[in-house]
Design goal:
By secondary structure, the chain is mainly α. The protein has one domain. It is built from seven helices and no strands. Helix 3 (about 40-45) runs parallel beside helix 5 (about 75-85), helix 4 (about 55-65) runs antiparallel to helix 5 (about 75-85) and helix 6 packs antiparallel against helix 7. It is globular, with a radius of gyration of 14 Å. It starts with a helix and ends with a helix.
Length: about 120
């Protein structure tokens, strides 16, 4: 990622996060596929949306689950963090499976931490 892409990514992050504007949800979700180099940053943004409809929340969860097996360790880590932020207990089995299949110790450790947080939030 070059400097201008990094600046654009951070700008998107601050704009979306500070406005708390859920109308940007679809544009953010589309960024996940549009720029492969910023998948981890986009997943981070998606985890910050609040007051989503069930369909929107499910869309974020599905995207995060898909990225638990991404080629990039940082993307896999961020996918697990996003799932913990969503606090949807139905993601637990996906995280458990990802942890069981994760070859990288550092990534597996972060995934386990995300799973622990998610399990703590379970009703």
């Amino acid at each position: 990622m070059n400097i201008s892409e990094a600046v654009a990514s951070r700008t998107r992050h601050y704009v979306f996060a500070s406005l708390g504007n859920n109308s940007c949800y679809m544009a953010t979700l589309e960024l996940l596929n549009a720029n492969p180099d910023s998948r981890d940053q986009v997943l981070s943004l998606l985890g910050q949306y609040r007051h989503l409809s069930k369909g929107e929340s499910d869309g974020i969860m599905e995207a995060a689950i898909r990225h638990l097996s991404d080629e990039s360790g940082s993307v896999r880590i961020q996918a697990s963090i996003t799932l913990a932020e969503l606090a949807n207990p139905s993601a637990i089995s996906y995280l458990q499976s990802a942890i069981a299949n994760e070859p990288d110790d550092a990534v597996r450790s972060q995934m386990q931490h995300s799973l622990d947080l998610l399990e703590e939030r379970r009703p």
